Amino acid sequence: MTCEDAVKKLREAFPDSIHEETQFRGETSLRIAKSSLRDICLHARDRMGFDYLVDVSSVDHFGQEPRYEMVYELYSLRNEFHLRLKTEVSEDDNTAPTVSDIWPTADWHEREVYDLMGIRFIDHPDLRRILMWEGYPYHPLRKDFPLEGKTTEMPGVAFSEPAPLAGGPFVTIPTDGTTQVREPRARHAGEIPSPEKFLAEP
Amino acid sequence: MKIFFKKICRIRHLHDDANDGKSIRPRGSNQAMRKFRLAARKQENRVSRMSTTLSPVAYDGKIEGNVIFTQLDAAINWMRSHSLWPMPMGLACCAIELMAASSSRFDISRFGAEVMRFSPRQADVMIVAGTVTYKMALAVKRIWDQMPEPKWCIAMGACASSGGMYRSYAVLQGIDHLIPVDVYVSGCPPRPEALLDGLMKLQAKIMKEHSVTEQKKELLENL
Ligand code: SF4
């Protein structure tokens, strides 16, 4: 079986739930409905040999609706091909079905998504934070959370303070300019870096 | 007198140049040679006597045998600074260099600090090597609190000293926000030599401390 066959069969099995198919550099992505995510995953694992869940990640499309997106990377070790499933999660609902009973590896991946993005997984066996401490009030990978952090205080457990960013996060811009152009200390939205703005390099 | 002075000068010269591998021999008769040797010996005696009497650490007298007179501070500080048992707080990549420092090529045991203690109750110096996240920060503080006095702290690397490149919501911006740091070692990561240099700086700092201040205070309060 090749990847095309697999996708074709999947589309035949779930004609209404697969909204979109994208090809990019030999990788196939399917945009699917959240309600049939578990069915599709089970089908993919049991009938099509996707025995390996490579990664679970989430994207924050801040300012758009639906705001979040879950991304599942499947791989078939038997047939040696890769498939990406994407599904949308709206901000109001903010939940997704767990796949941790289908692929146990999803357990910690989903905990990480919950910790950093705040999406809750229905029927997850142990939905606790995994990187930040229990009781931390924010979800730091959301786009509206500042990189330097916010003040929190949990006596005896942990605290946090905003980090000094010295004018902004350290960024790299793809240009053919000098280091000071490529890597300015501070950059503001919409600003186009120009060599004159910075000191000449020796 | 003038000649003698000149010779002394020459001897000084000889001593100075000895390191360069050049040696200047006085020209002249055997007698001049003998005189030169005599003067050189005198000079050496003078130097060695001077260094003994001025030494702050000890006076090992010929008459008293192996009895050594010294100051209490000097003796205690000497012992403390040469048996610094580290508490290795290895939290990130710097810990690899810390391990390298304690292995044979760099050999931290030359400074008496090879006895890595994984129990804080047996440690003297906490070497914070790595990125201190907020989640870990209070654990580091707790381990620090469990170490008995006197204790010191070395912040090894940019992360432990200032948060390093991690200007972010998750990383404590320098362990000195929580515990007092004696020596900061720069680098990302610092080479083992840099850590050894930091250790020597700490030793020098300990040698200048008043070792029994706390005990004296207690004694005075009890009186
Ligand atoms: S200072 Fe550099 S090497 Fe050391 S822990 Fe931080 S990032 Fe790693």
Q: Would you mind describing this structure in some detail?
A:
The complex is a heterodimer of chains A (202) and B (223). With 202 residues, chain A is of the alpha/beta class. Chain A is 19% helix and 26% strand. Chain A contains 4 helices and 9 strands; from the N terminus they run H-E-E-H-E-E-E-E-H-E-E-E-H. Chain A has helices at 3-13, 37-48, 106-117, 179-182; strands spanning 18-24, 27-32, 52-60, 68-76, 81-89, 95-97, 120-122, 152-154, 158-160. A 5-stranded mixed beta sheet of chain A has the order 1-2-5-4-3. Chain A starts with a helix and ends in a 20-residue tail after the last helix. Chain B is α/β, with parallel strands linked by helices. Chain B is built from 8 helices and 6 strands, in the order H-H-E-E-H-E-H-E-H-E-H-E-H-H. Chain B has a 4-stranded parallel beta sheet with strand order 3-4-5-6. In chain B, strand 4 (125-129), helix 5 (134-146) and strand 5 (152-156) form a beta-alpha-beta unit. Chain B is extended. Chain A binds chain B through residues 131-133, 138, 140, 145-150, 156-166, 169-170, and chain B through 134-135, 137-138, 163, 165-171, 173. The complex binds iron/sulfur cluster. Residues 92-94, 130-131, 157-159, 164, 188-189 of chain B line the site of iron/sulfur cluster.
Topology:
The complex is a heterodimer of chains A (202) and B (223).
Chain A: H1 3-13, E1 18-24, E2 27-32, H2 37-48, E3 52-60, E4 68-76, E5 81-89, E6 95-97, H3 106-117, E7 120-122, E8 152-154, E9 158-160, H4 179-182
Parallel strand pairs in A: 2-5, 6-7
Antiparallel strand pairs in A: 1-2, 3-4, 4-5, 8-9
Chain B: H1 2-18, H2 30-54, E1 59-60, E2 68-69, H3 72-81, E3 86-90, H4 94-102, E4 125-129, H5 134-146, E5 152-156, H6 157-162, E6 183-185, H7 192-207, H8 213-222
Helix pairs in contact in B: 1-2, 3-7, 4-7
Bound molecules: iron/sulfur cluster.
